[in-house]
Amino acid sequence: MHTRRILLLPVLAALPAILCAQQTELVGYGDFEHFTVRHITESKMLGGDRKTLYVIGPTDTLSGNEPYEYGKETPWSSSNAYANVMGIAKGSNTMFPECRGNGHCVRMDVMLETVHVFGVVDISVVVSGSIFLGRTLEPIRSTNDPYGKIDMGIPFTRKPKALMFDYKARISDRNIITQSNGFRLKEHSGKDAAMVFVYLQKRWEDEDGNVYAKRIGTGYRLIDKTVSAWHNGYQLPIRYGDITSESWYKPCMGLMPEESTPYCCENSRGEMVEIREVGWGAPDETPTHVIVMFSSSIQQAFWGTIGNSLWVDNVKFVY
């Protein structure tokens, strides 16, 4: 009897850990071991080079200047895109796979992409590498509305405790932010950073096709310093309800104002419209959609600190 009690003690001691063990669920293709490789041939007036773009999704290779149908086989999209403006084909690639041990991760860079038109005219555009849950509606036809072709977020009704991922970052010490969306390049003083956020929303649509949302859950992390070694298993807590009175609350965690980045979605009519966050939801409400985004910059489109990079791997939800 005494021997049996001794043998049971380790089991009983381990019960709290077993009962409290967290459950994790990998976001589809979130281990970044599978990519679709796209080969785009740019227009002859741009040099006619072959550009390689990467999609986080099924292992495949596609050749030809054809739009990719995001949202069909993968929940991920990225800053990589195929553009065709007035018949001029161009590919942009600021997110790509990188070897990590025996596997892969994703790397996102802030880059200045320079296009030589007939080898004479230089067009420079700042592009920040990013990945997000949602769709890019290709081809991109204009730089006038950079977010109008991005369907941000995917349907989602669960309530995770945190977003887990591995990451490292290179953040420049230069307090210079470059702005360029074409022919004019400007430099501004300021500090850039990488970021990750997760928003759980409860969306609805009115009779005119406008889409509104209440913020149910929020997780936000600013990465403003270089992290040279991999930080594995980092957990970004998701807080539910109105968080504005919490001591750790920062304005960057707030509702999406109309004057900032206008995140969009496709309504029931097939139109791209802005997502209008109109308030905070109650902690016990059930979301309809989740937005997850990783980016090498916190700046608006065509702004960023050249040389900033963010590496990410093993993206999971924690329950």
Question: Can you offer a commentary on this structure?
Answer:
The chain has one helix at 2-20; strands at residues 24-26, 35-41, 50-56, 60-63, 76-78, 81-85, 88-92, 95-100, 103-117, 121-128, 130-136, 150-152, 154-155, 162-170, 176-182, 185-189, 194-205, 211-223, 227-237, 239-240, 264-266, 272-280, 289-295, 303-304, 309-318. The protein has 319 residues and is mainly β. Strands 1, 8, 9, 10, 14, 15, 16, 19, 24 and 25 form a ten-stranded antiparallel β-sheet that branches. Strands 5, 11, 12, 13, 17, 18, 20, 21, 22 and 23 form a ten-stranded mixed β-sheet that branches. A hairpin with a 5-residue loop joins strand 21 and strand 22 (272-280). The longest helix has 19 residues, at 2-20. The radius of gyration is 22 Å and the shape is globular.
Question: Mean pLDDT score, rounded?
Answer: 89
Helical content stands at under 10%
SS-based class: mainly beta
Largest beta-sheet details? 10 strands, antiparallel
- How many structural units, i.e. domains? 1
Got a strand count? 25
Instruction: Round the Cα radius of gyration to an integer and report it.
Output: 22 Å
The fold-level CATH name is Jelly Rolls
CATH class: Mainly Beta
**Which architecture would the CATH scheme give at its second level?**
Sandwich
For the termini, the CA-CA separation is: 39 Å
H-E order: HEEEEEEEEEEEEEEEEEEEEEEEEE
Shape: globular
Helices, by number, come to 1
Strand content: over 45%
